[in-house]
Amino acid sequence: MYKVKYSNHSQEPLNNICIQVIDSFVKNQNNAFKAGVLRMKDDDSDTLKTEATFLEDGVSSKRNNSHRERNDEEFLWMAYNQKEYLIVPDLQESIQTQDRPIFRNKDWIKHNGFKSTGCFPLVAKGRIVGTFSLYTGAEYLFFPEMIEQGKKVADILASIILNIKLENQRRKLQASIPTQSQIEVKFKKLAEQWKHWKSKVWFLPFTQKLTHPAYQQIIALGHDAIPLLLKELAQNDEPDHWFYALIAITGENPIAEEQRGRIIEMKEAWIKWGKTKGYIN
């Protein structure tokens, strides 16, 4: 039997899929693996975070599962940097006599009597997303067939993790994009600020009025503000100089030379433009 322990930051969808994948490999008695450690690369730093550990009954769980900052002499980072699996067939001798590669859990390795270890980088579409380490109770257990199995499992895990990362990024991006209703609320608030301020400074030059922060923030809303500006033109007798905001956003000006200065005709020109472009009905 194996015990599976997930870190506090581990994601439930990843948990379930990893169990299914690793069940067919780590828990296979023919492979004689005693422990496995799955780590994921943090997207915002040079850190490998322990996602899950897989321990056979009787294997101590007292190990350092803290995040791994980059250390090019550490065993898992060596595999990570090379994007190629690494094997240490004589693990007990290695941790006793060598300074490289570095193993941070030497006491845990000694206590459990692990004889060999391997680390498989998780690479999908040229992007490395983590590492998968395995420990055995026998020396030289990583024969070619087992290594090929390990590489296949690593490829599957890498693909799963990359897809989850991409989906999380998509959701974060989608959540950061304001909805049309939120944009409309913001537009109305800015428009009211602009109108209120403009009514009090009627004596200022017109060009100076356009530099007001509320007016500039309406322009910054971009194309999302176009139907709202056109609606303002269509519904209000006072156009509030929205022509300039529309020009700034769209880069177009449907007002003909002979229409300039004729507010009603200017408004009608923009409304016609908006219907032609599909912004308003």
Defining key terms:
281 residues, alpha+beta, Beta-Lactamase, 7-stranded antiparallel sheet, 7 strands, rod-shaped
Question: What would you note in describing this structure?
Answer:
The chain is an alpha+beta fold and 281 residues long. It is built from eleven helices and seven strands. The protein folds into two domains: 175 residues, Beta-Lactamase (2-Layer Sandwich); 98 residues, no CATH class.
Helix and strand arrangement:
Layout: E1 2-6, H1 12-23, E2 33-41, E3 47-56, E4 68-69, H2 75-82, E5 86-88, H3 91-97, H4 106-112, E6 116-124, E7 127-136, H5 144-176, H6 180-200, H7 206-209, H8 213-220, H9 226-235, H10 242-250, H11 263-277
Antiparallel strand pairs: 1-3, 2-3, 2-7, 3-4, 5-6, 6-7
Helix pairs in contact: 1-5, 6-8, 8-10, 9-10, 9-11
What would you call the structural class?
A: alpha+beta
The percent of residues in helical segments reads 40-55%
Our measurement of the CA-to-CA distance between the termini, rounded to an integer number of angstroms, reads 67 Å
Percentage beta strand: 15-25%
Poorly predicted residue ranges = none
CATH class of the largest domain: Alpha Beta
Q: What do we call the CATH topology of the largest domain?
A: Beta-Lactamase
Shape: rod-shaped
Radius of gyration based on Cα positions: 31 Å
Number of strands: 7
Number of helices: 11
Compact description:
With 281 residues, the protein is of the alpha+beta class. It is built from 11 helices and 7 strands.
